[in-house]
Amino acid sequence: MTSKIKGVVFDLDGTLIDSLEEIATATNRTLEAFGYPTHPEEAFKYFAGHGARVLVERAAPKDVVADPHRFEPLLERFLSAYHRLTGTIAHPYEGIPDLLTALAERGIKLFVLTNKPHESAGECVADIMPHWAFDQVLGARDNVPRKPDPAGAVEILETTGIKGEEMLYLGDTAVDMKTAVGAGMVPVGVLWGFRERKELEESGAKHLINHPLELLELL
Asked: Quick check: is 98 catalytic?
């Protein structure tokens, strides 16, 4: 694979940044405001990954989810709370700054593809990782299917002219591995994020790494 890789696509939450506390805080504050039960922080490792709507569906009481008149105001309140909180608690995982610097020095293009709302994703990357130039930061948009649909990943390939086999895709969940496989990218599972080795292996990870700098061995 030496010298073949031209770009790296990163998932955001659980891959580039440790945002679990931030996600849990925004969700639990929203649930509390409506008088609904809250959840321990660890539960959000499994609530997160498919975007804001699914996150709130998993966290809210089932009878609320089934009633649009109750669920939609809850979702709207969460989106507002999360937008205000984004980037205030989350921080890059240990080793990520060094990895981004090393990739930039090698001329590797950097991308972010996340199911976090698009505006929040851009602000989050700019606030938490201001010293690195990402070529594209793509979050959840109304006109583009969310991961694991590969549409966003394919968009990156088409707009850059980079081939799938020339792009590493780094993520911490089955959603990410399936997205990479669907786009023809090289799926790399990270073991410092929200999910376990077994999930990553079963969903198509070609490589698994324990520390960000191990990615450099795949270039």
From this structure: no
